[in-house]
Amino acid sequence: MTSAATFAPTSASPSASVPASVPPSAPQRIAGMLKLLEDSLPIHRHVVHAGDTVCQAGQRFVHLYIVNSGFFKLVNMSEEGREQVVGLHFRGDWLGLDGIAGGQYGCDAVAMDTGEVWAIRYDALLQACIAKPAVLAALHQAMSRELARDHDSMLSLCTLPADARVAGFLRYWADNVSQRGLRADKIMLRMTRAEIGNYLGMTLETVSRALSRMARSDVIRFPEKCRRDIHIPEVGALTAFMQRASAAAAPASTLH
Amino acid sequence: MTSAATFAPTSASPSASVPASVPPSAPQRIAGMLKLLEDSLPIHRHVVHAGDTVCQAGQRFVHLYIVNSGFFKLVNMSEEGREQVVGLHFRGDWLGLDGIAGGQYGCDAVAMDTGEVWAIRYDALLQACIAKPAVLAALHQAMSRELARDHDSMLSLCTLPADARVAGFLRYWADNVSQRGLRADKIMLRMTRAEIGNYLGMTLETVSRALSRMARSDVIRFPEKCRRDIHIPEVGALTAFMQRASAAAAPASTLH
DNA sequence: CGGTTGATTGATACACATCAAACCCCGTGG
DNA sequence: CCACGGGGTTTGATGTGTATCAATCAACCG
Question: What are phi and psi of B190, to 5 degrees?
């Protein structure tokens, strides 16, 4: 189970028009994992609506949650009350993982839209892990993936200028959506500019300006009316825009 | 499943006033975990020296590594070659966790000093997890703790001004050192100003200035000679300095 | 020693934050 | 139907925290 997750060349995909960067097996992988959990564990399904809190920082850790549908943000909070969005989660992602170590959740997990989460008791999950190694593998992959994602976020936060971070955010969102088998060229953000800015470490005005610049360069397009929908004619153009934006400010950086 | 309302009045109360207290059992917990792994698994011990790479981004994921002694940094790298320190690791921490999901490591783990790491084959670890639930618990706690730490890092990066981030870094280092049973009032940084700055998302000059200001306020002291050693008369003063520095720039931040 | 690497400090530049005004969309109620 | 209000967005003018550039200094070492 350790190998060949990123490159799964074996399976031919039914979904035809996905961009090349996405492994075709991704939607199946997620669906398979959800099926596995359904079959292995007692699950409590919860429908949530925008603004609902799935689990709250400080609460006693009992359950892990798996996103079946919808979009969720992870919000960390300092003692002084500074709020920070530290993660975004989609179908197949797990919520509450940072509660395992300390016996209480470290972040709020908040729904950004109507969706469904599955609650699993952690003690029951551990039983299932021992009975079915595939469950163990699924859990480990979820945690490991979140770690890797966090590391990439830190890389962006620390090394990219604002425009590039916003472009990277859109690419990340598009990748996630298309990995779940949905079309990525017309994405519907469930976040305000303020939330995006918070997640990316900048103000809402800077987000807005970055999006305007991207629209002006025709990297993205806004439909008539709603500025929350974003058309992405070509995902590759986002990457190019990122590189242009970051090359402008950072000629070279060496750690030593 | 609590619902809605971003501002539940209950959330303000939970005990936040603990000044980074150290559970007295921390050194025992770590020693116990190392003992457990020793007894449960075939382990390959490796002595490393400053600059040695324990595992490298892109390498095929086979082993996890546990720090027995020494200090390690996790370095993430973008396609364009921007390097970013995304984590610091001490005795009892695990290295290579972000490789589980993708079949290859996501970061370099680099020794910052002479030390010893234990290599464990991941497949063997999975066997041991099934045989001994305590091993499973140790692994999950290590991953969960790293997730929580990453979230805290993002909170700092996005919400704190440079001075407060540097103070927070020192407090973090001191906490880790003292959790391992070493004295925390005289810490010996194994990092250059450039490495600290990279980790904290700022330049080496800014780190230097922040340290100078702290020394001027007598929050820290430099011994004669070596500017890499730092005396911390009172760890609480670091927290106070952090709050002063962050209050200066951020009167209030609301997500909505 | 001189040479090298790291740290400090100052002067200046710039990316982004802040402040402010206007606009758009949409639901509500007269 | 339009008036109204309010949250979200855009855009401009201005301020500032930190980066950048540059010079000096300190410690180490063959």
Answer: -95, 15
Q: Check residue A57 and report its DSSP letter.
A: T
| pLDDT attached to residue B24 | 54
Q: What is the pLDDT, as a whole number, of residue B95?
A: 98
B212 CB less than 7 Å from any atom of strand C: yes
End-to-end alpha carbon distance in chain A: 37
Same domain, B43 and B123: yes
Model confidence pLDDT, tens digit, residues B211-228: 999 999 999 999 887 888
Segments of chain A with pLDDT less than 70: 1-24, 249-256
Q: What residues of A are in contact with residue B144 (Cβ under 8 Å)?
A: 97-102, 143
A-B C-beta contacts closer than 8 Å: 213
pLDDT given for residue A47 in this prediction: 96
Instruction: Report the domain count for chain B.
Output: 2
pLDDT, mean over chain B: 90
- Same-domain status, B68 and B129: yes
Q: Which position has the token pair 């103000």?
A: A203
The closest CB to that of A255, out of B83, B136, B153, belongs to B83
* A99 in the same domain as A68: yes
Is A113 found in the same domain as A30?
yes
Q: Which of B114, B142, B170 is the C-terminal boundary of a domain? A: B142
Which residue gives the smallest C-alpha to C1' distance to D19?
B203
How many CB atoms neighbour CB B13 within 10 A? 8
Residue A203 and residue A158: Cα distance in Å, rounded? 16
Q: Is residue A205 part of a domain?
A: yes
Q: Name the token pair of B220.
A: 């820290």
Instruction: Tell me which residues of chain A, numbers 144 to 203, contact chain B at a CB-CB cutoff of 8 Å.
Output: 144-148, 150-155, 157-159, 192, 194-195, 198, 201
**pLDDT score recorded for residue A164:** 98
Instruction: Say yes or no: Cβ of A56 under 7 A from any atom of strand C.
Output: no
Please report, rounded to whole angstroms, the spatial distance between the CA atom of protein residue A181 and the C1' atom of nucleotide C25.
31
Kindly report which listed range (A168-172, B17-21, B37-41) carries the lowest average pLDDT score: B17-21
- Given an 8 Å threshold on Cβ–Cβ distance, is B84 in contact with A154? yes
Q: Is the CB of B172 under 7 A from strand C?
A: no
- Complete DSSP assignment for A32-73: HHHHHHHHHS--EEEEE-TT-EEE-TTSBP-EEEEEEES-EE
Q: CA of B96 to nearest chain A CA: how many angstroms apart?
A: 9
Supply the range of the domain harboring residue B108.
Answer: 26-142
Instruction: Return d(Cα A146, Cα A140) in angstroms, integer.
Output: 10
Set of chain B residues whose Cβ sits within 8 Å of the Cβ of A198: 158, 255
Does the distance separating the beta carbons of A102 and B148 come in below 8 Å? yes
Q: Are residues A114 and A35 both part of a single domain?
A: yes
Q: Does a structural domain hold residue A147?
A: no
pLDDT digits (tens, 9 = 90+) for B95-136: 999 999 999 999 999 999 999 999 999 999 999 999 999 999
- The predicted pLDDT at position B193 comes to 97
